[in-house]
Amino acid sequence: MPPHNPNYNSVPAFHAKLATSRRILAVCGAGLSASSGLATFRGAGGMWRNYEAMDLATPEAFERDPGLVWLFYAYRRHMALQAKPNAGHYALAELARRNPGFWCLSQNVDNLHVRADHPPSQLKLLHGSLFMLKCASPTCDYQTENYDSPLCPALAPAAVNAPASATEIHPLLDPSNPLPPLDPSTLPHCPRCPPNTSLLRPGVVWFGEPLSDPLLTSIDTWIEQPNTPIDIVLVIGTSGVVWPAAGFAEQARMAGRTREEKEKGIGASVVHVNLEAEEEGNLRRLEEGDFAFAGDAGEVLGRLLE
Ligand code: BV8
């Protein structure tokens, strides 16, 4: 039996640490939105179980079958619009208002942080948004915000017969019952390009696509501010398998530390908030001063950041 970690599920110990913390970074994943009823990607309830992420969230998939990829995103837009921000989103937004030294990095594209009024200068959406559309042509920089659902008549089926629970796959996307490909001419097109020449695509970062350079630079500059180490890194509802997002927590842990601190491994307190956080399992490797809270991200953050 691994030694009991005194910081496991200990809200008072976390509150004591929070009271003396000035620089805080949060890295959020799909588990935060699961508290709002949206499907995650992997693990229990992951929507990818019927499709590999690579089948639907890559430029190659869009090239191969833009209709299937658009049905997938139309369905996720529909579910995200039906969902509401949860206590976790509001707690993070409130923390940002209280503490200008707090930044929130989110892998989520569902717009729930924005709908919770998170201060925009302290929120970095690493993978874009379901509600940004952009021209699929590499030579056109047209992009626009759009909250219509359905986005166009051809995608209306993705917004009906949606399963009650976001963790079931939409019948339209069931690979055992493939749809005939949609006619690309019925999909949304770029209004700036000549008619019917270029499709619009979701304004998200697909696998194999780089994250925005200015965004990555701004995050690196914030993390690496000299002589102002980060005190707390909140790792919320993420499996930590997608890069470069998965690397920020470790970078933040040791940034700004002296050589001696680095040699002794003295860094920020990493706070894991995950449904599957258990002391005997993946969080056994908690470093000195880390915390782990097992439970629903919305509920746990509501208590931790009240
Ligand atoms: C890049 C937007 C370089 C789209 C997403 C092979 C080929 C190509 C690339 C790669 C490759 N191998 C590795 C790579 C790199 C790749 C990568 O990391 N792949 C992984 C799969 C190994 N990364 C990239 O491709 C990135 N780009 O590397 O570019 C480059 C440079 C220059 C030039 C060209 C290229 C781009 C990655 C971005 C991909 N886009 N999203 C969309 O959403 O459709 S990623 C997608 O997964 C989501 O954004 C999601 O956030 C992200 C990570 O998943 P999680 O959020 O962690 O969700 P998950 O389901 O995994 O886990 C949920 C967790 O919550 C679990 O731990 C669960 O226990 C917990 N949980 C569940 N419920 C709750 C809960 N916790 C609390 N409460 C609950 N209620």
From TrEMBL:
Keywords: Metal-binding, NAD, Transferase, Zinc. Zn(2+) binds at C135, C140, C190, C193. Residues 4-306 form the Deacetylase sirtuin-type domain. GO terms for cellular component: nucleus. The active site is at H127. GO terms for molecular function: histone deacetylase activity, NAD-dependent; metal ion binding; NAD+ binding. InterPro entries: DHS-like_NAD/FAD-binding_dom, NAD-dep_sirtuin_deacylases, Sirtuin, Sirtuin_cat_small_dom_sf, Ssirtuin_cat_dom. Belongs to the sirtuin family. Class I subfamily. This is NAD-dependent protein deacylase. It comes from Dichotomopilus funicola.
